[in-house]
Amino acid sequence: MRAAVIGATGILGGHLIPRLIERGHRVSAVARTAAKRAALERLGVVVFEGDILDRASLAPALTGADVAFHVATVIPRAGPSPDRSPNDRVRREGTETLIAACRDAGVRRYVQQSIAHLLAAGDDRLVDEDAPLHPTPVAQSAVDMEVSVRRSGLDWIIVRGGMFYGPGTGRERQWREAARHGSLPLPGVGSAYISLIRVADMASACVLAAERAAPGSVLAAVDDAPIAFRELLGHIAALENAPPPSPGGPAIRSCRVSNARIKAALSWTPFYRTYRSGLA
Fold first, then answer.
1. Structural domain of 109
2. Per-residue pLDDT tens digits for 99-132
3. Euclidean distance between CA atoms 241 and 124, whole angstroms
4. Is the pLDDT of residue 79 over 50?
5. Are 256 and 126 in contact (CB under 8 A)?
6. C-alpha span between 26 and 20 (Å, rounded)
7. Residues 245, 189 contacting (CB under 8 angstroms)
């Protein structure tokens, strides 16, 4: 299979590409800078100068491809008021641009990265992909992105990932450093659940989705054990021999999502089945 990866230099793209190559797929990609293109070329990727917001620049990477992956994101810089508009633009305008470029190039199969937190309803029920969406204002652009994909006319698959952690995400480093400094707060009282996925497992789910998923599938790539924040962050504090985290951080909606559908559809199982092995 020839796979075109848009977002190849991002966190997920960095885990996706070696797994595609490992399974014998040929990979093409776009990157904006010469340094990033050179890094991808060293991995065996055919790389072109391009940007998800520039339709014409996507054409060389998509020509002859069997599947396109949209795994592009722009992670907002940390701070009191992070600027999320570039990521919103990638989700909205970038998705429409890539869909149009896929039609131009005759690429039918399309895999879209999305987020499981769209299902965060604020209670402890275990939900699946058919549950109503409850986007926060920050996540509304992900809903708009999914709407564009559903209306695209392509043979699309949407993979909603849990909260990423693992190499390249920086999340465990932040948690562990905060625990060591005694500044790891619980969101609210810590009773809200979070559905996690180690980024390597998200990458493997996306590869299998491209290979096996039925068109029109929406799949939640989350681990086997959605976990309450007080247990997750308490475990991190214990790993660092630090005091338990204290309530007081901003409350977060509970997000407890099942992975039964993706397991059945793709014969996929996360290598890191829970936070315990993922944080070891």
1. 2-166+197-222+257-270
2. 999 999 999 999 999 999 999 988 899 999 999 9
3. 29
4. no
5. yes
6. 7
7. no
What CATH number did the domain enclosing 75 receive? 3.40.50.720
Give the H/E segment covering residue 247.
strand 246-249
Task: Report how far residue 1's alpha carbon sits from residue 10's, in angstroms, rounded to the nearest whole number.
Answer: 22
Q: Per the structure, how many domains does the chain have?
A: 1
pLDDT above 90 coverage of the chain, percent: 90
Q: Return d(Cα 50, Cα 260) in angstroms, integer.
A: 37
pTM metric for this prediction: 0.95
For residue 114, is it within any domain? yes
Q: How far apart are CA 64 and CA 62, in angstroms?
A: 6
Place of tokens 């999914």: 146
Burial 8-41 (b: 16+ CB within 10 A, else e): bbbbbbbbbbeebeeeebbbbbbbeeeebbebbe
Residue 228 counted as domain residue: no
Distance between CA atoms of residues 169 and 115, nearest Å: 15
